[in-house]
Amino acid sequence: MLKRAVDWLDVRLGVRELWQENTSGYLVPRNINAWYSLGTVLLALFGLQFLTGILLLIHYVPDTEKAFGSVETIVNAVPYGWLIRNLHAVGSNLIVVVLLLHMLSVLFMGSYKRPRELTWLSGFILFNLGLGLCLTGYLLPWSQLSFWATTVATDAAGAVPVIGPKLVEFLRGAPSVGAPTLGRFFALHVVVLPGALMGLVGFHLFCVRRCGISVPPFGKDAKPARVGTVFDHEKHPGGIPFFPNYTAEEAAMVCFALAVLVAVTFFAPQIFIPLDALEPANPFVTPEHIKPEWYFLWAYQTLKIFPSKLIGLAAQGALMTFLALLPFIDRGEERRPAKRPLFVTCYVLGLLLLIGISIWGRYS
Amino acid sequence: MMHAKGWLLAGCLLLLLPGPVFSAGEEAPTIPRETVCLQCHGGMEGRLGAPVGLWKQSIHRQNGISCHDCHGGDPTDFAMAMSPERGFRGAPEKAEIPAFCGRCHIGVKDDYLASKHGRALGKGGPQCVTCHGNHAVVKASPDLINDKDCTRCHSFERAARIKAALTDTDRIISGLERDLADLRRLGIAVKKMRGEVFAKRNEFHRLFHTVDVNKVHQGTAAVQKSLGEVATEVAGIRSDLSQRKLWGGIAIVLLLVAGGLCLLLRRTYHDEEGKG
Fold first, then answer.
1. Contact between chains at B19 and A271 (C-beta distance less than 8 A)
2. Cytochrome b/b6 C-terminal region profile domain location, by residue (chain A) (predicted)?
3. Which of A263, A279, B22, B176 has the smallest CB count inside 10 Å?
4. Across the interface, which of A244, A255, A266 has its CB nearest the CB of B244?
5. How far apart are CA A217 and CA B53, in angstroms?
């Protein structure tokens, strides 16, 4: 029956050829390593977020009077609601961790260099969309943490000259965080951002497949980053089949990432659900220590380091623009880390600085 | 290759570590803001400055009760802080102390006044601060009934029997409060149970000022019976949580085994690639 259905499709769309070309016929570098599997791990984690998000939507009520209660009902009364909610909350944090690892590995191996500028750029925008999803999702439970973290985060936009106050009001839908903010963050979180994310993931994968996978810049197989005058798909004759050879490794990495997710979800979900997230939002009671999530601490502290918020925002903007446009700025052909001492030094120092500022932000 | 996988896993775990550092936090006590009373008396020495130091160790401070909550006055205005116009009432005389404290601790005041201790008020009998202290007010607990304090006025024999009856219930209440705080930390809805324990704790505390041993026995038995129902509910939730962890552990093991098998499969392919 299945064979007949595939035959029917094959005659019309040539699906067997398409499958062969993209699986066993698709050769990847022989020295490909585990870091290349992080994209697949991210796809699996995003898939799980979509699934748990849809299940949460069945019971979640985007109303300031009912949102917190609906989340409490999900966690306490809906069968397996606690599992779905905790997987969603912990999964979002794990996604940020894997996104960072993915980007750091791409940076270290120089895989962002030409001809993969668009792959990097789309990936960088995807990273920001991921953070946007975290920020908008944060408000939805309408807890003390949600309310005050969103108040602080949107308040930062007020530092923009001239349009700052208007921008804050636009983000919130009102002078302060309230029902209009919840409405627009909900729409962004469940429709706009996931839609944009899916579209961009498609484009990112298209870029990866069209350019071909880069050779790890280690050993005798390392190749310089070059682009010719005409399009050239980077082939790997003598490479290994993507399926089943490399997908076995990807499947292993997905299993290990899911094991971490399950471990935190079942044994220590409170790591990512602080006490203030368990109290309903109260605009009249400011919690003693409002801190953003760990992945925003560097931005939070940057705003405090500089004498004015505007300079802090400008510094953040400059850093993000620099990273987004890195393949257009760093045009050298060399990809081997051992031959790029300046880059590796900046990479390590930049990473240490980011971690240091984040820890400073946590304890400041 | 295996080396790289090890580093990747270690990296994942390492980056997860900042989580508890960044996210976890303990419930901070409600600390009263710095009032003019504290600013002025805090810098004084002797009789006028001592209350500030004593108050800082008190249960009142932990619960956000500051000088003006008892003594009245305006805590925001240096000039008028101790003005009767702003409700300043100063320190009460000994016989007035139960009425002074009883403005907030209404039920306790009634219980005290009905007891032998209360009936001896003004005739050498004890009042609130005799046992609880004045500025260094300590949390009400059976520890306040002790040989050293009670024998200032009478023998400890009857007090010891009352203390024995109270201690058991106090331990059950403290244990339940800890259990409910732990469950709340995990996102479990405990508001109703907390309300029940709170009500029973208040009922229990009203027994503290009774010096009738039989009444204390009857009261604690009734309180313990009601707390038993909450304890059963808590035990049920704990059992569910243990079951969850068991299933979680099984899921983790299965995922690790699946991951390991995939790596073995990859190794098989790797060997074949070498031969090819």
1. yes
2. 232-364
3. A279
4. A266
5. 66
In angstroms, the CA B259 to CA B176 distance is 42
Helix (H, G, I), strand (E, B) or coil at A27: strand
CB of A251 less than 8 A from some CB of B: yes
Give the sign of the dihedral formed by CA A130, CA A132, CA A133, CA A138. Answer: positive
Residue B31 lies in a domain: no
Nearest residue in B to A258, CA atom: B255
Helix (H, G, I), strand (E, B) or coil at A240: strand
Does residue B174 lie in a domain region? yes
Hey, which residues does A241 pair with through a beta bridge?
A27
Q: Are strands A240-241 and A27-28 parallel, antiparallel or unpaired?
A: antiparallel
Sign of CA dihedral B133, B139, B141, B143: negative
Query: Which of A45, A316, A295 shows the shortest CA–CA distance to A149?
Result: A295
Identify whether B68 is part of a domain: no
Quote the crossing angle between the two packed helices A38-59 and A247-267, to the nearest 10°.
Answer: 40
ipTM above threshold 0.85? yes
Beta carbons of B23 and A255 less than 8 Å apart = no
Contact A113, A327 (CB under 8 A): yes
Q: Give me the domain span that covers residue B179.
A: 155-244
Per-residue pLDDT tens digits of chain A, which is 364 residues long: 899 999 999 999 999 999 999 999 999 999 999 999 999 999 999 999 999 999 999 999 999 999 999 999 999 999 999 999 999 999 999 999 999 999 999 999 999 999 999 999 999 999 999 999 999 999 999 999 999 999 988 998 888 889 999 999 999 999 999 999 999 999 999 999 999 999 999 999 999 999 999 999 998 888 888 888 999 999 999 899 999 999 999 999 999 999 999 999 999 999 999 889 999 999 988 887 778 899 999 999 998 999 888 899 999 999 999 999 999 999 999 999 999 999 999 999 999 999 999 999 999 8
Residue B228 lies in a domain: yes
Q: Please give the model's pTM, rounded to 2 decimal places.
A: 0.82
Q: Report cis status (omega within 30 of 0) of the bond before B29.
A: no
Nearest residue in A to B20, CA atom: A271
Domain boundaries, chain A: 36-296
Single out the residue of A193, A197, A196, A239 nearest to residue A216, CA to CA: A239
Statement: A36-296 belongs to CATH 1.20.810.10: yes
Chain A, 95-134: which have a CB under 8 Å from a chain B CB?
97-98, 100-101
pLDDT digits (tens, 9 = 90+) for B109-127: 988 998 889 999 988 889 9
Q: Residue B76 to residues B38, B44, B52, B71, B79: CA-CA distances in angstroms?
A: 11, 18, 17, 14, 9
Rounded to whole angstroms, the Cα distance separating B188 from B120 reads 48
